[in-house]
Amino acid sequence: MNAASADLLLHGACSIVSWWEGAPEGADALAIADGRVVGLGLAAELRQRFSCAREHDVQGALLVPGFVDAHTHPVFATGRAEEFDWRAQGVDYLEIARRGGGILSSVRAVRECAEETLQPIVREHLQRMLRHGTTTFEGKSGYGLTTESELKSLRVMHQAAEELGMTLSSTFLGAHMVPAEFKEAPEDYLEILCQEMLPAVQEQGLATSADVFIEEGAFTLEMGRRYLERAKELGFALRIHADQFHALGGVELGVELGASSVDHLEELSDAGLEALALSGKTFAGLLPSMPHFLRMTTDAPARRMLQAGVPYFVATDFNPGSSYTPSLSEAAHFARVRLRMTAEEALHGVTLGAAASLGLEAQKGHLRPGADADVLALDLPDHFHFGYGFGENPVTTVWLGGQAVSL
Question: How large is the average pLDDT for residues 296-316?
């Protein structure tokens, strides 16, 4: 029997996290062909099954699926480092917004930035994510808050992701905050969102999901309902920022409307937890580096959610104001410390769990035969070390569709 052709054999792994129950015990090698995993097992066995054009010895690295970051805000023009000092002086998130900082300061910067200037900035943000192992991501707009600026944000994100070969699941977050010019007439802005912005994004095919920030100082529950119902009517999947600082009913609304995820949940109520548990379909988006960054003392009740069988993911919430990190390894560290997750739970949250929340679980987030060959080599001796250390990047090599990426 002739051996099948393969493009690449990765071998010499200390172990492989594949999320495949059928993986042979002690598997140390992957065979890749046409951008997909075609074999997983012992190197000697795979060499018998496949004629490999190239081989690469990963020299004892831990092989894992490419990370999937299911909650990011990468389209910003400038950082907000000064606000970090304000927080050190005791100024909270909502007070910073009232001072003219926060989300609205990022909005001003994006509006003023020409598209040809913004695109390379966003590309560098995505490059930072890729260096830390993120190969697939959910990226949100939300720092434009006009039709023109939101469409610009989505376009540059698509272009930057395509240039780097990353897989993008795009989300329209025009309902991030009511812009300053509509401070006294928020319902007028909501009307523009529903009747102008959402249809424009849908017509141009720039986003598959729509998101809203339901919170004091942002969108009320009633406004969120109207926006989400309109988005659902137009065919968008739904994602919600909910229960970050106050439990206003956003989680229950998300479950009612069949949202793909409700994210943050630091102030998740018992009613919200019950709704998620009964749903079993709406994912809990856990963003543990955010409360660390904001010096919060509350965290999402992850252990209670996991015990209740709530599907979940772990994400960075990468943004300039409340979680300035592109590293899912760092997010996993905080998941293990603040959310009391095991290494396996954290690793699942940044791979298969995240992919499933985006509807990409058929090809992303695992290394079963047939999966896209997005693979990471981590300088770790076993999976228990994932999220154990912090302040350093364990990613040594990234393969996108079986092709090594220059980092």
Answer: 97
Lowest mean pLDDT among 94-108, 154-168, 355-369, 373-387: 94-108
Q: How many CB atoms lie within 10 A of CB 265?
A: 28
Q: Give the mean pLDDT of 13-21.
A: 97
pLDDT digits (tens, 9 = 90+) for 114-140: 999 999 999 999 999 999 999 999 999
Show the 3-state SS of 99-129: CCCCHHHHHHHHHHCCHHHHHHHHHHHHHHH
Q: Which two tokens stand for residue 297?
A: 């003392």
Mean pLDDT over the full length of the chain? 96
* Displacement of CA 176 from its chain's centroid (Å): 17
Rounded CA separation 231/3 (Å): 50
Residue 153 has what pLDDT?
Answer: 98
Nearest CA to 126 among 73, 78, 173, 174? 73
Dihedral sign for Cα atoms in the order 184, 105, 93, 303? positive
Least Cα distance to 272 among 255, 291, 259, 260 occurs for 255
Written as six digits, the tokens of 208 are 């598959």
Distances (CA, A) of 196 to 62, 117, 145, 234, 282: 48, 26, 12, 12, 28
Alpha carbon distance 75, 253 (integer Å): 27
CB atoms within 10 A of CB 33: 18
Give the C-alpha separation, 194 to 29, whole Å.
Answer: 50
Residue closest to 177 by CA, chosen among 218, 142, 136, 215: 218
Judge residue 216's burial from the number of C-beta atoms within 10 Å of its C-beta, 0-12 exposed, 13-18 middle, 19 or more buried: exposed
Nearest-angstrom CA–CA distance, 222 and 237:
19
The answer on pLDDT for 103 being more than 90 is: no
pLDDT at 91: 84
Residues 288-299 pLDDT 10s: 999 999 999 999
